[in-house]
Each structure stands twice: as structure tokens, then as C-alpha cells.
Amino acid sequence: MRVAIIPARGASKRIPRKNIKHFDGKPIIAYSIEAALNANCFERVIVSTDDAEIAEIAMAYGAEVPFMRPASIADDHATTIEVVQHAIQYLQTQGVDPEYICCIYATAPFIQSVNLERAYLLLEKKKCNYVYSVTQFSFPIQRAIKINKQGASIMFTPESFYTRSQDLEEAFHDAGQFYWGVTQAFIQGENMFSSHAFTFKLPREEVLDIDTLDDWSYAESMFEILKKKT
Fold this sequence. Notes:
The chain is of the alpha/beta class. Helix content is about 30%, strand content about 20%. It has 6 helices and 10 strands, in the order E-E-E-H-E-H-H-E-H-E-E-E-E-H-E-H. The strands form 3 sheets. A 6-stranded mixed beta sheet has the order 4-1-5-9-6-10, sandwiched between helices. A two-stranded antiparallel ribbon has the order 2-3. A two-stranded antiparallel ribbon has the order 7-8. The two termini are about 30 Å apart. About 35% of the residues are buried.
């Protein structure tokens, strides 16, 4: 069995009610739910939340909410791994023992069903613990600088100063969309960013980290542009 778990707690400080705020006409969590339901790789799509309104909206869009998440793992300090572990433990108490889990973030409106399917096939092919979405940095990280309290700057990697940008190694970052994994790896809390994990690359225009209202407005603009291209 393959189960999608979508964490969606009620509290959010920078963007109030972020997980159900409307994005291009519908709650943003709906995009993650619909992508999971339309992907041909899940027997169940579950939303883990501590919030009754989020639960109601999630079920209206077709997800299951078979439990309410306890407050102890619904604050700012709760980790994604803890939330997934709680969901797995619940399923196991109900006699359900999934082989694979896919954690999908609730604020990922650019997520695509086909990418969930392809990432799952990669997980099976590689026989690894995890496959998660990444995208390339838009600028060489070797050119990054840090600024001290006095305002002076220094490169993080000064040895790269004379290297041409095109000769610097490509670097990628977590795209914050989905994380496929073997259930046992989640249960044991194994490190996702390790040699036991493979990455699924996404184009930069399909990845936006939405943390502020400015991010939100920019994401909606990009969403409109992408819609016109399809």
C-alpha cells in the first residue's frame, strides 16, 4: 500500500490560515489533495491536521481525515518526520501497514500528479530510502557572500573568486513539494538528505517557497503565467 500524508496544522504566523487561504480561487491545500488523488500511485490520501475547518475543507476535496493531530505535534517545533510518524502509527493501530509513504506539503500549488508518479517509480527503481523533489539554485552558491555586523562582506568560498560561473558545480535545494519514502525509513527517522536518498529534479519555475504575503502574490502571478503556457 502507498499512502499520501499531507500535514496541515491550523496555526501559521506569517500568513494567517495559510493552509486554506484561497490561491487562484480555491484553498491552497486543494492543489496538493487533487494532485495526490489524480496520481495513479496512492490507495489513500490523508490530511494530518489539528484544525476542524482544515479537516472539513480537506474532506470536501476528497481527502481522508481519519484522526485529529494532537497539539504536541502541531506547534512551531514539530517536525515533518514526527507528523508522518504519528500518521503511520495511527494506520498501524487500524491494521494498515503501508509499504511506502509520500509526504506532500499543503502549500504546493505547482505540484503535478505526473511528478508524484515518476518519483515513485524512481524510488522503486533505486531501492533507496527516500526520493524527494529538488530544484537548481538560480545563482552559483559559491558566489554567496556573508555580511558582518559592521557591514563588511566576505565570500563563503573565497577560493571560487576567480572561477568562471559556468565552471562552478551546480547546486540544488529542497523544492518543498513532496517526499517519497519507505515507511520503515520514516519510522526510524532516517536522514532524508543522505546517500540513501535520490532526488527528483523540478524546473525552477515550478518551485516557489511561500512564506510571506509577498511570496504569495508572486506565486499567484507565476501561476497565471504557467496556466497560459499549458
